[in-house]
Specification:
Layout lengths: L1 H14 L3 H9 L24 E9 L10 H17 L4 E11 L4 H18 L2 E9 L3 E9 L15 E4 L5 H7 L21 H7 L2 E4 L4 H12 L2 E5 L20 E5 L3 H7 L4 E7 L4 E4 L5 E2 L11
Parallel strand pairs: 2-3, 7-10
Antiparallel strand pairs: 1-4, 2-4, 5-8, 5-9, 6-8, 7-9, 10-11
Length: about 300
């Protein structure tokens, strides 16, 4: 009798479009059991079988993405942006946890959202480990777990006279944000950020410090400078700016900014997409110069959700 009641309960739960329904139908299939994560999605916690790095991000509708954004891109972008923090430490993202707050859940929304997540997970060989769903204003919380070797990149390793590089050009995310309804979605770096996961092993070998550029190049570089107790001279160049000097502060780039004792010629042999952007100096200040060596002024250094 107890067994029959349990089966009836499970059957009844599956017909109601509640938390269990959306988890079972759209999120649990994204979970993959493997050596790193031996317990699949479904229990109260996940077991992690390696020395790991963990990072968490929150994405609020109207703050981090437009209110009318397709759920596919909300899913893809949320995981990509969170995974970028793991790359910044020299690790590769392997799995993630999701916390979803949504006011009006539907099959249509969850199908598109889970498709976006799955596309990113498949591209980067990641797995969804678990999470939670509740009702309220749309908010996506992502916790990413990454695997690294013995070397972890931090912000406090920059040294005087080292060179400053970025793994790709700036401004693509800013342009994509401005024109997210117009640009080819597959090429839109705001909707589908292309994080430099294939370069991270090479970057880890040559970098002394690293950070991902999310809030704006200048404000993120400043975080390295403060941690390392150094300063920097930046030399703006159209080769690494998509739109102009505003690319240094607009954010949504998801490239890696790192320091190295290699010169530009040697480093770009290893990382062809990387750009030299400046020099670490002893004096604790941050100056930006144009190609005529004029000092440029900025009203702000980047994006801050509290300002």
């Amino acid at each position: 009798m107890v067994e029959w009641e349990q089966q009836a309960f499970l059957k009844d739960t599956h017909h109601k479009k509640n938390e269990e329904y959306f988890i079972e139908k759209y999120l649990k299939p994204l979970s993959k059991k493997n050596e790193s994560f031996p317990i699949p999605n479904g229990d109260d916690s996940s077991l992690i079988n390696f020395n790991s790095l963990i990072s968490v991000d929150s994405f609020v509708e109207g703050q981090h993405f437009p209110k009318d954004l397709d759920p596919f891109f909300i899913g893809y972008r949320s995981i990509a942006v969170a995974a970028s923090d793991i790359l910044a430490m020299g690790a590769k993202p392997e799995g993630c946890l999701l916390s979803i707050t949504i006011n009006k859940p539907s099959d249509e929304w969850f199908e598109e959202f889970s498709n976006g997540i799955n596309e990113f997970l498949e591209q980067h060989k990641m797995s969804l480990l678990g999470g939670d769903i509740t009702k309220g204003n749309l908010n996506i919380g992502v916790t990413v777990v990454g695997k690294t070797n013995n070397k972890i990149l931090k912000r406090d390793g920059a040294k005087v006279n080292e060179n400053i590089f970025i793994s790709g050009s700036l401004g693509r995310g800013y342009l994509g944000r401005l024109k997210y309804r117009e640009l080819d979605t597959k090429l839109n770096h705001f909707l589908m950020p292309k994080i430099p996961i294939h370069d991270i092993d090479k970057i880890r070998e040559v970098a002394s410090s690293c950070i991902d550029v999310s809030d704006g190049f200048l404000i993120d570089l400043k975080r390295i400078l403060i941690s390392s107790k150094v300063g920097a001279d930046i030399f703006i160049n159209e080769n690494f700016c998509t739109n102009g000097k505003e690319d240094l502060i607009c954010g949504d780039d998801y490239v890696l900014c790192f320091t190295s004792n290699l010169d530009e010629k040697d480093l770009t042999k290893i990382l062809p997409d990387a750009h030299y952007v400046g020099k670490i100096i002893k004096e604790q200040k941050l100056d930006v110069f144009d190609q005529k060596k004029n000092r440029l002024n900025f009203n702000k250094l980047g994006w801050d959700s509290f300002i």
